[in-house]
Amino acid sequence: MQEEGRAIGGRATESMTGRLLVATPALKDPNFDRTVVLLVAHEAGGALGVVLNRATEVPVADVLGGWSDLARHPAVLFEGGPVQPDSAICLARMRHPIRRLKGFQTISGAVGTIDLSVDPEKLRDSIGSIRVFAGYSGWGAGQLEQEIEDGSWFVFDALPGDAFVDRPDDLWPMVLRRQGGMMAAVAHFPPDVALN
User: Fold this and answer.
1) Three-point CA angle 60, 32, 8, nearest 5°
2) Is 32 left (phi over 0), alpha (psi -120 to 50) or beta?
3) Pairing state of beta strands 36-43 and 111-114?
4) Which of 159, 189, 158 is nearest to 173 (CA)?
């Protein structure tokens, strides 16, 4: 759920929870080069998100066996970001977003986080798919806003299926192309060209 505007860094801003951060070609931090991040939380104290397009080769079944049947293809763990890589955040897409569901925290519409301590069998009829992220991406108060102002990130609205695409490696150009115009041209920017 979007929160009302608040003062961050001395200026009013709206919560970006549920929106996508798309790395610009100018962002050369290897942790975020050509990444798409879904913001799971954004408030005055900072922001938290997960990288949607960094699949690992570790099957969900190897780590969270009971949840593997709900995992969307590819059913592997994803690198959510450089912070606490030994922790897990699970995104889920509900089949019926108007229902309240124990252990489900809405991010936007039918997409939210799910508590992995809940018995997955009890959620099978309510959850359409999940994706599990090892670690997360985090920013302190005002840090993300400064990175956006410095040109490191584009901010776009997310579509419900963005976190669950079958080909996560294609997500960065796909999100840019659907913006149209000059933004679509950025999707074809060569990865090895340095920006001054």
Assistant:
1) 110
2) alpha
3) unpaired
4) 189
Sign of CA dihedral 65, 71, 73, 75: negative
**Residue 19 is encoded by which pair of tokens?**
């929106």
Q: Could you report the per-residue pLDDT of 88-98, keeping only the tens digit for each? A: 999 999 987 76
C-alpha 50/C-alpha 166 separation (Å) is 17
Residue 132 — φ and ψ, nearest 5°? -110, 130
- Residues making up the chain, counted from first to last: 196
The CA distance from 39 to 17, in Å, is 5
Position 149: which residue type? E
Q: Cα–Cα distances in Å, from 171 out to 17, 55, 142, 180?
A: 19, 12, 27, 15
User: Which of these, 70, 87, 172, lies nearest to 131 by C-alpha position?
Assistant: 70
- DSSP string over 175-196: HHHTT-HHHHHHTT--TTPPP-
What is the average pLDDT across 128-155? 96
- pLDDT tens sequence across 15-40: 999 999 999 999 989 999 999 999 99
- Exposure string (b/e) for 22-44, b if CB count within 10 Å is 16 or more? bbbeebeeeebebbbbbbbbbee
Instruction: Look at residue 98 in the predicted model and tell me its pLDDT.
Output: 66
Q: Quote the Cα angle for 93-96-99, to 5°.
A: 105
